[in-house]
Amino acid sequence: MSHPPSTPQLPPGPRASRLVQTWRFVARPRRSLDDSFARYGDAFTARIFGMGTIVVLSNRAAIRDLFTADPEVVVTGESNRRLFEDLLGANSLLNLDGSRHLRKRKLLTPPFHGQRMHVYGVAMREAARRAMARWRVGQRFAIAQTMRDITLEVILRVIFGVDELDQRERTGAVVLDFLDFFSRPEAAMLGIRAAQLDLGPRSPWGRMLRVRAPLDERINAAIAARRAAGTEGREDILSMLIDARDEDGQPMSDAELRDDLFTLLLVGHETTAASLTWGFWTLLRRPDLVAKIRAEYREVMAGGPLDPGRVGELVYLDAVVKELLRVHPVTDGAARLLMQPTRLGDLHLPAGVMAAASTWLTHHNPALWDQPRRFWPERFLGKKPPAYAWLPFGGGPRRCVGAAFATLEMKIVLSELLNHASLRVEPGYQPKVARRAITLSAAGGVPVELLAPVAAADRPLDPEASP
Ligand code: HEM
After folding, report:
1. What atom of ligand 1 comes closest to residue 397's alpha carbon?
2. Which top-level enzyme class is recorded in the Swiss-Prot or TrEMBL entry (predicted)?
3. At a CB cut-off of 8 Å and minimum separation 6, what does 207 contact?
């Protein structure tokens, strides 16, 4: 092992202009990374508008040092603020550092753990079943849209406890309008601070503010209504956050609540929907894997009703989900800003630059994974994912708050749909990777067709039936 150089320096990287590098990052997210990895290896320097100079890592030792560094020195909120302060709000967990981040995380962690997960599991299963009930044999549809409908319904229900379906759908439409805006080419401009100016409804920032306003209104109205009606007996996240107190006994202000709910809405469903979409595209072309998922489901079901509390018994499905998150990561990775010169593995990087653990490159680095391009869930059977090599949810003190929630949702939706519906993906369909809001999703939405009537909830499909 070589030693880090004594003076801070940047590793080499692509020499193209910042503009060209930014365009490639937006338009060809995978290829640009693969090309740079092939040329420069597991640490290289890129220059991207909105992010400045960024050292892209797929080296395990460097990633370990990044995730275990002092969060006052290697920060996240400060760099997020440059991109998202006006978008997500100054109080958003994503935009905070140090003690304010810690305090907010303590408030936001309990809603996503423990007994509550069972309640969410029931909501997830219901949303999946409701989606299937709408399908007709022979119908063709984009599975990405179904996944968005399901995950949006779930997040709205668990965040706001919107019980009434109609109201949930109207709020959902406002959220989708907002997110759709982020799949337009002009949205790439929003990361540039100088472009964050309201120059009227035709300017990107002006448009963003106008599609966000109705969403703000709905969130503010929900907060006011809940404060007025009280939180007694309620199990939604909004009520939990209204009741939460920090160490000094202080409740959250309306502004804080608004920023947090907005953040959770944005990061809490599109990511899971995109992961599930890649999942269906992968699994529907692999009847052998679907047969194994179904056989396991039947076996576990033989021991009694498979309610969401028993999903943990589906160990093969667990391995499938881990492998999906490895092969098709839906975020670029975990980025930090270095406030001081920092040693990361063999690197000694200067202050002021960003360092990012690249999910795509780390998950496909042949030095870390046997046959990295192969989809092979068995690699996770009976084994924990290797530390600092499997990072779909980032790592360290900023690791994704919703990781357990998202994993549960993926398992429930995959298992409900694969065990009760025979779907066919259009033969030869090969999706491109497209940026949509913060996620890398399958362009075209993955068209599928329902081949036979959806099976009853208590009569799962035969393992050998068509996928
Ligand atoms: C498959 C689905 C998901 C993926 C792949 C994903 C991925 C990520 C990643 C990579 C990060 C950055 C971690 C880091 O910097 O180390 C993150 C942060 C975060 N995620 Fe997720 N996420 C998913 C679902 C969710 C859900 C369902 C929620 C909540 C309902 C959520 C809430 C958050 C929050 C609040 C943060 C910021 C944490 C902080 O800064 O302390 N995510 N997520």
Report:
1. 41
2. oxidoreductase
3. 181, 186, 201
Whether 457 maps to a domain, the answer reads: no
Residue 392 Cα to ligand 1 middle (Å): 9
Proportion of the chain in helix, strand, coil states, percent, rounded to 5? 55, 10, 35
38 burial via Cβ count (<10 Å: 0-12, 13-18, 19+): exposed
Find the mean pLDDT for residues 42-66: 95
* pTM exceeding 0.90: yes
Ligand 1 binding pocket mutation candidate from 88, 152, 269, 393 (most atoms within 8 A of CB):
393
In terms of residue numbers, what domain contains 233?
A: 18-452
Please give the Cα distance from 53 to 116 (Å, whole number): 41
Q: Are 421 and 455 contacting, i.e. CB atoms less than 8 angstroms apart?
A: yes
- Ligand 1 pocket check for 79: Cβ under 6 Å: no
- Distance (angstroms) between ligand 1 centre and the Cα of 371 equals 27
> Whole-angstrom Cα distance, residue 158 to residue 460?
27
Residue 5 within a domain = no
Residue 4 confidence class, pLDDT cut points 50, 70, 90: confident
pLDDT tens, residue by residue, 5-43? 789 999 999 999 999 998 898 888 899 999 999 999 999
> Is 10 domain-assigned?
no
CA 330 to ligand 1: nearest atom? 5
Domain count, the chain: 1
Q: Which of 121-135, 242-256, 394-408 shows the lowest mean pLDDT across its residues?
A: 242-256
Q: Quick check: CB of 94 below 6 Å from ligand 1?
A: yes
Task: Round to whole Å and give the CA distance between 138 and 242.
Answer: 47
Residues within the annotated binding site for heme?
Answer: 400
For residue 344 the two structure tokens come to: 């990361």
How close is the Cα of 186 to the center of ligand 1, in Å?
25
The yes-or-no verdict on residue 196 having pLDDT over 90 is: no
Residue whose CA is closest, atom 36 of ligand 1?
400
CA of 265 to the centre of ligand 1 (A): 11
Q: Give me the sign of the Cα torsion angle 449, 451, 457, 461.
A: negative
Is residue 268 in contact with ligand 1, taking CB distance under 6 Å?
yes
Residue 203 DSSP label? S
Which three-class secondary structure state does DSSP give residue 219? helix
Q: Which residue has the higher pLDDT, 21 or 309?
A: 21
**Averaged pLDDT, 307-316:** 90
Question: What is the domain-level CATH number for residue 124?
Answer: 1.10.630.10
Residue 215: the pLDDT is: 84
Distance 462 CA to ligand 1 centre (A): 35
